[in-house]
Write a structure and sequence with these properties.
2 domains, TIM Barrel, 6-stranded antiparallel sheet, 3-stranded parallel sheet, 14 strands, single chain, Immunoglobulin-like, alpha+beta, disordered N terminus, 305 residues
């Protein structure tokens, strides 16, 4: 909502203070947003200021919501791209104030490359499981690669396969010299936005999510063997359905021991083209070999059939 320097935030909660212009502005916004039950409230954009600033406004918003008879969900977006840093840990340990988390900064090139990007998502998920399960959101997936933009798509898929609740490609920066290019054809150092590449990832993910009960699935890296770092990722409801994401051509083995004698169809999804390709079948109960070929990212789905 705001990103003011720490020295400008109001007095600590509980002091008898007069309403500030900032508070009047926030109250005016709330007079509109509290009419609707689907609005999420994030206190800052990439802040590094003390958490007291955020928590002042969380308490204020919660108070106004109580007065309006509404339930609201609040969080903060920290600037630190290390999800294990102290300010992130503060959020994980306080589920009452921070009822969802934003892990966008894990999607930067400083930290968000390959296996470490995935590991930090899983670390966050594990911590939330211990201290109060909450949605993990990615308001921004960056694409800080001049002319390539490979990592943005990979982060998008890793986040979903890591159990995140939302994913969004960051928008291109308006000052990066993209004048004259249609909005949906833009991509930049900042993000893919709704560039056709981004649309293909979104469309393909929707095709996969529509084919399975993705909410019933969990990140299942332990089901994959013969796997190198960043080679493949598994999301599964073991014994019932399995999805594997391959960032590029590679092969892994998948453990189907939780589904003895169950017959599965194997369906391949070409992500750039958003098309289902070959369909084969296999019987569960053992370990099978899966090989992604043809170039570019692909996903494979195993479901009863």
């Amino acid at each position: 909502m705001t990103n003011q320097p720490a020295h400008e935030y109001p007095h600590p909660i509980g002091d008898d203070i007069q309403p500030s212009p900032q508070q009047a502005f926030i109250d005016r916004i709330l007079s509109h947003t509290l009419r609707y039950p689907h609005v999420l409230y994030c206190m800052n954009n990439e802040t590094g200021e003390p958490v007291a600033w955020s928590e002042y406004w969380i308490e204020h918003i919660r108070k106004r919501a109580d007065e309006a008879g509404r339930t609201v969900h609040t969080t903060d977006m920290r600037r630190n791209n290390d999800l294990t840093a102290e300010d992130h840990m503060h959020i994980y340990l306080d589920p009452d104030r921070y009822s969802f988390v934003d892990i966008s900064q894990n999607n930067s090139d400083t930290i968000g490359l390959g296996e470490i990007h995935w590991e930090r998502v899983i670390q966050c998920r594990t911590l939330l499981g211990k201290h109060g399960p909450r949605p993990m959101n990615n308001t921004k997936i960056y694409s800080r690669e001049e002319g390539v933009h490979v990592q943005a798509g990979r982060r998008f898929w890793r986040n979903v396969f890591g159990g995140c609740a939302s994913v969004r490609f960051h928008r291109p920066h308006p000052l990066e010299g993209l004048g004259g290019v249609a909005e949906h054809d833009q991509k930049s150092f900042h993000g893919l936005g709704l560039h056709p590449e981004a649309q293909a990832h979104i469309r393909s993910m929707r095709m996969l999510a529509d084919a399975i009960d993705i909410v019933a699935c969990t990140p299942s890296p332990g089901l994959l063997t013969d796997r190198d770092p960043d080679e493949a990722y598994c999301l599964a409801d073991a014994g019932r359905v399995y999805a594997i994401y391959f960032p590029d051509d590679s092969s892994v083995s998948l453990d189907l021991s939780a589904a003895p004698a169950r017959r599965f169809t194997i369906e391949w999804l070409a992500i750039p083209e958003s098309t289902w390709t070959q369909v084969t079948s296999v019987t569960g109960g053992g370990t099978i070999h899966l090989e992604s070929t043809g170039g570019g990212p692909r996903a494979v789905l195993l479901r009863p059939g």
